[in-house]
Task: structure prediction
Amino acid sequence: MKTIILNASPRKTWNTAKLLKSAAKGAKDAGAEVEYIDLYDLTFTGCRGCLLCKRKGVERCHCYWKDDLSPIIDKIFHANTLLIGTAIYLGRPTSRYFELIERLHFCSLSYDDYSNYFTGKVNVGMFVSMNASKEFYDRLYKEKFEGYAKELEMLNGEVELYPCFDTLQVLDYSKFNMGSFDETKKKEVHEKNFPKDLENAYQMGKKLSQKSSD
Result:
């Protein structure tokens, strides 16, 4: 039972990473073998359109471009569970997230009939962390991010989306030009809600990894 965890946020010790590490603990407690990867540590781009994955007679669901991401794509297709997290930047996932998704989708997409070459099953948990409030997310982001999560149904497993709202951006707001934020309020919300988010991430990592063994 293998769980791959991908951090698509550039901040390796902050909100998204903390959620993923809590989910990793849940997966481990479920008995999964866990591998945690920071995508911003790797060197890769989005799809180059080389079409090597569309040649006749080649292995399907494999990206042939030689960089740091191609082995990660292989790991995803051979995993039981994928836990992936991204911060929300300008209302969207990070650029690393999109580069990964381009490559993952394209090498499993048939250009004969637009079917999915992948026949396995990988359960997916998607975590998104944001400075926005729940009300703002529900009004402007929710539909978009549910769409992003739906794209991961190409892995044929259960897909769950977990949004984490109103996160703390820095420890000391007085050192930054962030006058639109109320530091006291941000810290109060963080202290109240983030421990619950971490527990929910733990449970989600545990549940999805357990389901992959059923």
Q: What stands out?
A: The CA atoms of residues 23 and 202 lie 4 Å apart.
